[in-house]
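Run log, item B.
One chain of 341 residues. Sequence copied directly from the ordering sheet:
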Amino acid sequence: MRKRTLGASDMLVGELGIGCWAFGGGNYWGPQDQAVVDNVVDLALDCAVNYFDTAETYNDGASEISLGRALGSRRHEAVIGSKVWPDHAGAVGVRQALEGSLRRLDTDYLDVYMLHWPLQPTPRTELHPQWQETWETMQALQQEGKIRVIGMSNHGKTQMSQVLGRGVPIAVNQLPYSLASRAIERELMPLCRDEGVGIIAYSPLQQGLLTGKYERVDEVRPNLARTRHFHHLRGGGQSRHHGQGVEEALFYMLDELRQLAQAHGVTMGTMALAWAMVPQEISVTIAGARTVEQLQDNLKATTFAIDRDLVQKLKEISQPVLEGLGPCPDYFEDVEHSRTW
């Protein structure tokens, strides 16, 4: 597998990583057998997939526990990224959150530690009261050797600039990126490139939507239809936005993607995942793998030869979705209430 440098660090990671949200089981994804997780992690490492992404909030910590158990004696082969929730901002909260993650993962250091979402000040023109001590604590933990590099997740251009402008050494920003979610191309990709910050791209298959699993919009489960891609009523009361969605453009794109994939003799998922890994600003693209078979399918994207013409064609069929959703990369909230700016 091709290797890339993980942003502003000296770590090399495979271009495909594992999103570990489902590990440990939980209400969102359902039960997950630990023996299956063990097999997925072993195969991943054997295939040079070495970046594993988790968070303290994933299944109330069960994801970290499951990943730690699966890695076991192979921990040294892995690059682990985890995240602290904004509720744990401040010197005491961040330190306690990290210690909890280390304990659950059964390790004495994290390779990447990220603030999961930006701290939300009121008004936006000011910094959150715990902003400074949160980032100072992250730097202190790095100096203590408990984390190798500092990262952020879901931070927009202004939020990134606030942190970088005050000298915090940010290595990566974890952001959504797929054919259905291209907002970061407008401002964040260029900024990350200019600042030497790597992008950890998540949801490249849009939680299964781009695999062709759903042929009609009414087949999409409510918990997967909470984003601005869909009419707010499809979320079954779980949507936090009030928009009309871009369903017509979205399913037009899926139909076109299906035809292109068939013409090239690959699955929709393989083509969509390969496309998401193309930009050099992206250090690693993380995709969930609940089974060995799913991981094997994801791995096919790393060997699919996607040429410039196909890259451009896929951009063209997804352009109406991009234009309909706009440049805001927070796909869960109304734009005026976005957590990312």
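Observations after the first pass:
- The chain has a mean pLDDT of 97.
- The two ends are 34 Å apart (CA to CA).
Flagged for discussion on Thursday.
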